[in-house]
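::Encoded backbone::
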Amino acid sequence: MSTKRSTAVFSLILSSLILLSMPGRRVTKLDGAMESAAFESFGSGCRGSVGVPLLEPLDDSLPWIGSEFVLQISNLPPLQKSAVFGFLGDTDSMFRGANLPLDLSIIGMTGCNLLINARLTKFILSEFGVAHWELEVPNDSAFVGGNFTVQAFAFDAQANGFGISVSNAGLGTIGAQ
């Protein structure tokens, strides 16, 4: 699947998740008013071979409708290319009936926690210890005020018995300019 098509499909699924996270929400016309976009980091990741992976917006990127929201994942293994999985969800309270955060020590990921209800996984390629995750935010006012959660997992053979390090998580709120 081409990158452009993959991004479009991912955007469509993101849209569905956001709408599902807003049950009974009524959308009113914005009339030129601005609704703030936001991104807040929460929780902590677990140590990999070069430190704890850090998930944060690239520069001053925020999830505005009709724009690309870019997250940067750093402190990854400094390989030329490496695999990272971005998890997208809509809450930080439950995952498949289990309370979050979920301790991943039981599968050999000592000190790591799942912090969000990972509903969708996006494969991201890192280069020399940094990955960029682009999320296309739909250009539709129905999404304003919608929330989503994100967290990243990176292959790192030296991280723990499972060979994966985990980032902090983030909560995004879609805004309109």
About this structure: The chain has a mean pLDDT of 87. The first strand starts at residue 38 and ends at 42. Helices lie at 3-20. The radius of gyration is 16 Å.
